[in-house]
Design goal:
CATH architecture of the largest domain: 3-Layer(aba) Sandwich
Strand order of the largest sheet: 3-4-2-5-6-1-7
CATH class of the largest domain: Alpha Beta
Low-confidence stretches: 379-397
Bound molecules: adenosine-5'-diphosphate, magnesium ion
Distance between the termini: 40 Å
Shape: globular
Helix content: 25-40%
Strand content: 15-25%
Number of strands: 14
Radius of gyration: 21 Å
Length: about 400
Amino acid sequence: MKFTELDLKQGILKALKKKGYEDLTPIQEQTFPHVLKGRDLISLAQTGSGKTAACAIPVVQSVDPSLNEIQALILVPTRELALQYVDEIAWIAKETTVSAFAVYGGFSIDIQKSKLNHGVQILVATPGRLIDLLYNSPLRLAEVRYFVLDEADEMLNQGFLTDIEFVFSCMVHEHHTMLFSATMPNEIKHLSKNYLEDPVMVELIADKKAPDSLSHYFQVVQPRHRFEKLVELIEQEKPNQAIMFCSSRNNCDKLYDHLKGKVKSVEQIHGGLDQNKRTSLFRRFKRRDIQYLVATDIASRGLDFSHTTHIFNYDLPQNPEAYTHRTGRTARMGREGKAITFVMDRDMRKLNVILRANRIKPQWIGDEPDLSKAPRGGGGRRPSGPRGGGKRKNFRRKPKSSR
Ligand code: ADP
Ligand code: MG
């Protein structure tokens, strides 16, 4: 189906044409009518399948430009994703009078407050900064009609359930709630049961969470050979652009230090960097000014990198969902992409869980291990719900993070 067949505002059609969007992607085709009709919705589709526009186009279409109040609120788990999401809305809405803005941590809250005073109709936010603004400014959510949780499962993983519930309690106008992700583990059920009304489930990932154009390679390595293997693979594969994922800031630091001496264009991104640096790295990587990025999982959710051809899991992801999101930074929109995952002897149990849950047929570089001998069950999942468990200090507990 073509965008021109839809009854969209002229300004939106003009922007889509300029951007070169002609046909709706399958998730867009299936999601649009429900958003326009105002149904609550859970939309599950592969990474890189166009979920942002599936939500953003009908939301831009539906907000009332003459009402100077926040009418759509979009929550996302990371600051970079907030930036990316608001950029996408901004170009869709460019030829209309709808205004969008993003608020996220690590950036002056006063500047954000003054922008909000000037009237914003679509607000993209990370949960932490949104809560700060709700407590410390006259931010009004009374007119919100669309509440969107992008990567909702990740926000719950990060311990934001109470914050999200608080946000729900601030929205007094009847509103539609929509959840988008490539993965929706069981933890999401509580949220949908309590806060969504008779939701439509649009699910395009029934048997495959990863796109067909993504190939999954694995290599068994000994810890002391891992770095040289990585360098060898980089030389062989000559990635156009690649992300090397590590499981902690510390591991990122170490790998980055080593890699600096071997390749020219490499940077690292993790939650310990100041936000200006993070923003600039993210923008430069998106433009392909940087070839290699060593990253923690903060770069794994939702970010759209069209030049990235390779994902290296230098450390094995924690669980099947983390594998899906990390590797989903490549092979977007039908492009080819390769994921290469290092596995050490101690990882075999977790690997089994990842392969089975994601129905991956692994291709092996080097010797294939006998996985039938590895323990099969349990082990791989992150604990669900808020981390840490302790009492809430002030209004919310800042999620602990080593990402
Ligand atoms: P997801 O959220 O499903 O992971 P994104 O919304 O980030 O995917 O979209 C992936 C890429 O596809 C982006 O680069 C986006 O610009 C592009 N895209 C989305 N919809 C269309 C479309 N209808 N036609 C062409 N490109 C599209
Ligand atoms: Mg997305």
